[in-house]
Amino acid sequence: MQDELIARAKAWLAEDPDAETREELAKLIAAEDTVEIAARFSGTLQFGTAGLRGELGAGPMRMNRAVVIRAAAGLAAYLKGEGQENGLVVIGYDARHKSEDFARDTAAVMTGAGLRAAVLPRPLPTPVLAFAIRHLGAVAGVEVTASHNPPRDNGYKVYLGEGSQIVPPADAGIAAEIEAIAGLSDVPRPAEGWETLADDGDGSVLSAYLARTDAVLAAGSPRTARTVYTAMHGVGKDTLLAAFARAGFPEPVLVAEQADPDPDFPTVAFPNPEEPGAMDLAFTKARETNPDLIIANDPDADRCAAAVKDGGDWRMLRGDEVGALLAAHLVKRGARGTFAESIVSSSLLGRIAEKAQLPYEETLTGFKWIARVDGLRYGYEEALGYCVDPEGVRDKDGITAALLITELASELKEQGRTLLDLLDDLAVEHGLHATDQLSVRVDDLSLIANAMRRLREQPPTHLAGLAITKSEDLTKGTDKLPPTDGLRYTLDGARVIVRPSGTEPKLKCYLEVVIPVASHTELPKAREKATALLAAIKRDLSTAAGL
C-alpha cells in the first residue's frame, strides 16, 4: 500500500504545473510521510452542486492548479456535449490565495477546448460574475471563491447560461467528464487567446452591473441612513462604495482594518459575519461614529449582514430578520411575483406573502434552487443570502441587498422609526417567529454521519417538552421537494431541520418557534418565552444527536 501511495504521488508530481505544490509534494515524498500522502491521495475532491471547495495543497484531495485544470476540462467537455461548442464562458475570482491562477488556468482550458473565454479584470464580487453571465449571453460562468471559508480554503463555483448555479443532473454530467480525463498532458492550455474584460468605462461589465443596481431602489426614496461598512477582508468595498455613491447614500464609514482584500483574513478566526467575533471591529467603529446601520459583506460579497443598535449596544440581525424586513419593504412598494426561500429559513416569509396575496415557494437549501423558482421576485436564505433583483442577478447578491436594507432604514428614519420597530410590527401582525441555529464544526466528518444515523435510528419524540407531531426523512423527498440529506421535525408551534453543510465540515440544525402576539406590549414576554424554548430545543436536540 505504501509503495502504491508513493507511486501515485510521484505520478501526480510529474504532472503538477505549480512550483509551490510540486515543492510541497516533493518534500512529503522525500520524508516518506505516508500518513499525509494518504490524506491527500485517498480519493479526489468530489464535484457536486457546490462545485469544488477544499483546502489548498498538493494532491487530488486538495484545491490546486492540477485539480482545477481537470475541473475546467470536464466543464468544457460537458458544454461541448450539450452543443455549446462556440459558447462564451465568463470567469471571475476573489482575492484568496491562488484564485487568480485558477481563473487563468480555466480561461486557458476553455480556449484550448475551442470555447470562448472572458476573465473579469480583477477580483470582484461573485454577483458581478453572476450578472455578467446573463449580460454577455454566456453559456456558463465560473467563480473562483471559497466565500466565507477559512483562509486555507479555495473553491470553484459553476453557473450555467441562465446565470444560476448548477443543479442535478448537470453536476453529475460534469463530474463524469472530469473523471474521464486521463492526464493533464491531454488538456490543451494555450498561453493566450482569451479576453480580459475592461475594468471600467461605459462598456465594462462592472459599469453595467452598477447601472443595474438602479433597479433595486424606488425612484425618489429617502437616502439618508448613515452606515458603517466592513468588507471582511474581501472584495466588496470598491463595488459597494460605487453603488452607494451612485444611489446618493451618505458615504459609508469603513472598518479600515478589514476594508481591503487580504487572503489571510488576519482580524477574524472565520471571515463570516455570522461567526463569533467577526463583527467586533464593526461594532467598535459604530460605537465611535453612531451610524443608523452596520452593513457587512462576506469575502466574495454575495452575502449581506446588517446590525442595529438595540438598547445600549449593537447586535447583528439574524438572516431571517433581514429576510423578513426586505420582504415587507418590497410588499409595501408593490412588488409582484413569487417570494421564495429555502426550507431552513423562517416560515415568516410565507405569512408575509400570504397576507399580500403573493405566490410563495419553499426550496431545498441553496440559491441554486431558489434562483430557479418560476416567476421569482424575491428570494432569501437565513445564511445572509438575498436575491432582490432576479432579473439582474439570479443568485444571492450582497451589494444590492445592502442598498435595499439601507433604503428601508432611510425610510424608517424619516418616520422617526427603526428596523427594530418594523420587526415588532411584523411580530404583532404575523406572530413572533424566533429562530436560532445549532452549528457544530468538526474535524472528523464521520461525527456528522454518526449524528445523522443516530437521529434516524433513534428519533426523538419530544423536544423542549413539545411533542414532535411529524418527522420527515428528507432523503426520501416530499411531494414538493426532491431528496436531500436532512431531517425535519414539526412540533406544536416549532420546527427543527437537521442537515450536514454542503460547503463546510459542519452539522447544522435550524430551529424556529412561533408565538402568537396580540399587541406590542406582549412582545417582551413572548421573546423571553421564545428564547427559553429555543435554548431547550437546542439542548435536547444536541443530546438526541449525541453531540
From TrEMBL:
Keyword terms of this UniProt record: Isomerase, Magnesium, Metal-binding, Phosphoprotein
Cofactor(s) demanded: Mg(2+)
CDD domains, alphabetized: PGM2 (cd05799)
GO molecular function: magnesium ion binding; phosphopentomutase activity
UniProt xrefs under PANTHER family: PHOSPHOGLUCOMUTASE 2B-RELATED, PHOSPHOMANNOMUTASE 45A
InterPro entries per record: A-D-PHexomutase_a/b/a-I, A-D-PHexomutase_a/b/a-I/II/III, A-D-PHexomutase_a/b/a-II, A-D-PHexomutase_a/b/a-III, A-D-PHexomutase_C, A-D-PHexomutase_C_sf, A-D-PHexomutase_CS
Domain Alpha-D-phosphohexomutase C-terminal: 469-514
Name the UniProt record assigns to this protein: Phosphomannomutase
Biological source species: Streptomyces flaveus
Annotated SUPFAM superfamilies: Phosphoglucomutase, C-terminal domain (SSF55957), Phosphoglucomutase, first 3 domains (SSF53738)
Domain of life: Bacteria
Domain Alpha-D-phosphohexomutase alpha/beta/alpha, first and last residues per copy: 46-181, 218-311, 319-425
One example of a Gene Ontology biological process annotation: carbohydrate metabolic process
PROSITE patterns: PGM_PMM (PS00710)
Family listed: Belongs to the phosphohexose mutase family.
